[in-house]
Amino acid sequence: MSDNFNRRGQRNENSGGRNSRRNAQGRERNRKSQGRRDFSASVPSARRRVADPDRLVAFEVMQAVDNQDSYANLVLPQTIRKHRLDRRDAAFATELAYGTLRERGTYDAILSRCLDRPLEKTDPKILNALRLGAHQILGMRVPNHAALNQTVGLARGVIGAGPSTMVNAVLRRVSEKSREEWMDELTADLTDDIKRMSIEESHPVWIVRAFRQALAAHGRVPTEIQDLLAADNESPSVHLVALPGIGDLGEALDNDAVPGQLVEGSAVYSHGDLGRLESVRSGRVRAQDVGSQLVARALAGVGIEGSDQAWLDLCAGPGGKAALMGALAVERNAELVANESAKHRADLVSHALEPLPKSAFTVMTGDGRKIRENIMDADLPENIGLAVEAFGEDGDVFDRVMVDAPCSGLGALRRRPEARWRKKPGDVADLLPLQLELTQAAISVTRPGGVVAYVTCSPHPAETQNILLDVLDGGEVELLDTAAAVRSVALPGVLEGDADPGTAVPGVEPAEGQEAATTVQLWPHVHGTDAMFMALLRKK
């Protein structure tokens, strides 16, 4: 065996000759170098075997979403706490995880051009590492060399040395083009605008098509679709509401929250953990999308004749609208029944209502479609109990009823970054019978002259206008000027002109005393809210 190799066939770094001189020169250069050594930006260091905690958090969230059907907004805070990230690293991990999940469709289209195998035949762990790397390169302000180095380190630490080599090679190909150049390449041969926008804005084709139809159905211009999709990809602001008569926004405003621009008693908070605010911990101030605040206030504010003591939230979980409605009810000496079909969600409703006087509300657990039967056996607040006794078997007890019906959730995709990839077109059709039956049940326990609010967090025409028309066909209710009711509780002038959310329903006559028969559809790209739909119905 040559003297230049040891007994195991390994190179002897101390042997003579050219290799010996080269090694000696290298050691001398290293001794003369000052400060910390930087490894080449073009070749990620093989010594990085421990993943950065913030990137590891994002990776674990991606894996939990894929393997356990977890919700990112629930698993992310737990994972951040497990790894004890500080505020800065937690913010990075949040953007990395949420941004990658939202834009998975776009990144998968790019990665399919850079891999030598189909995506479905790529190890899921490797694919998630590649997605995270692609988002850092194309969607964040992370220098390419850092994105490559850190993602390869992540892959080496959690998957293995072999796969990390593949991750390195693929991400180098990704980094050779800008996002704009990738979009040009991916869409160059597409003549279908729906497919083009699906790639550019990372939404499934069926959702892009449904959104464009929804814009037209609700009186918007279909060409707004690109703005709507782009707004769906933005991280939503955190909106706060102070429960009227119970909480105030002083503490939040003192901690850099700013007053809301859409509705009274709201604020926008963007400075870290809400849990550090005592008013939030106590439940007197709540995180709630301002669209949800608007619809709850509109139902509470619309004028009705006669009694106004008994309010119902038929599908109350997890309790945000119920808490706001309950606080507004207390100001009117009214009482609230909050019904929820699932026990664990009913417990969340009870927790949300804790800041209210206990005599002002009750929480029921039961199928909302059977509310008429269940209400007779419930342990109700005094005013509502008296109403039940007075009406007896008729059961039409309530003055104001909220039906925030289970829906596809297409209006809140920006809050649930993984949701767009889980939903299927059939999800909408499956929910339609339930939405109609819940609304009919609500009408059955509403007194003549009382008002029912039909609300969904979806703009899909099948869940909004079509359900409304089916309800109106029953002949028991009439459509109010919902847009006027919503404008009346918004800040002056903010829902005028192009921001007017109202839509007249063709063929539907205005109710008695109303100037128009309208519905309301809010939009993230117009109002900065979730895409909430509302129709106010008065029982004849």
UniProtKB/TrEMBL annotation:
Pfam families linked: Methyltr_RsmB-F, NusB
Gene Ontology biological process: regulation of DNA-templated transcription; RNA methylation
Family stated for the protein in its record: Belongs to the class I-like SAM-binding methyltransferase superfamily. RsmB/NOP family.
Protein name: 16S rRNA methyltransferase
Transmembrane feature ranges: none
Residue ranges of domain SAM-dependent MTase RsmB/NOP-type in the record: 211-540
GO molecular function, one term: RNA binding
Keyword Chaperone tagged: no
Domain of life: Bacteria
Record: active site: C457 (nucleophile)
InterPro entries (UniProt xref): MeTrfase_RsmB-F_NOP2_cat (IPR049560), MeTrfase_RsmB-F_NOP2_dom (IPR001678), NusB-like_sf (IPR035926), NusB_RsmB_TIM44 (IPR006027), RCMT (IPR023267), SAM-dependent_MTases_sf (IPR029063)
Keyword terms, alphabetized: Methyltransferase, RNA-binding, S-adenosyl-L-methionine, Transferase
Binding site for S-adenosyl-L-methionine: C315, A316, G317, P318, G319, G320, K321, E340, D367, D404
Region spans: Disordered: 1-47
SUPFAM superfamilies, alphabetized: NusB-like (SSF48013), S-adenosyl-L-methionine-dependent methyltransferases (SSF53335)
Organism (species): Rothia koreensis
